[in-house]
Amino acid sequence: MPRSESETAGRARSILAGAGATSEQLQTLARRLQAERAFGLAWRLLERGYQDPAVRGDPSLRAAFARRLALCTYKDPDLPADKALDTALAVLRENFDLAATVDQEVLGLTGAIWKRRFEVSAQKRDLERSGAYYLRGSEQGAVGDEGYTGINAAFVLDLLAELEDADARAAGQQTPAVVTERRRRALITL
Fold it and tell me: Are 80 and 6 found together in one domain?
């Protein structure tokens, strides 16, 4: 028996078909869709709001839409992973200076996107980028994000250490100093 669509999803489809909605309503619906794990509908709603001239003209509102749009886009399981990740990063880059931002949520999102890219590509450099963003986020303190970036920074550092240690062992070498340093840093990051 097919699952029935939630009231939230029905309202979202109505808006996507042309019904009007305020930016506040779009954000509220997107949060609800996100809770329902309906990321595809959520990012399409957010994209609609993000393109609204009133949103584009309000830096604070535009940034709020951009954060949630990037999140819902990269988490959409129905999009090809490369497209979802590239699009989410493009939204963040368009709205934030990723090399200089201290916005903890943006740093956490960027770290998560690069971590997901590592999961798809198995390229260590993607994991290193993830760790760099998570570390910058954790430097902002645990209060702002309940420790999310710190926990993820520690996880990524530990994973990098494990990968490097395994490579060294496979080559018949001792544990490199960088492995010990990554593990030490992972512990103090928490």
Answer: yes
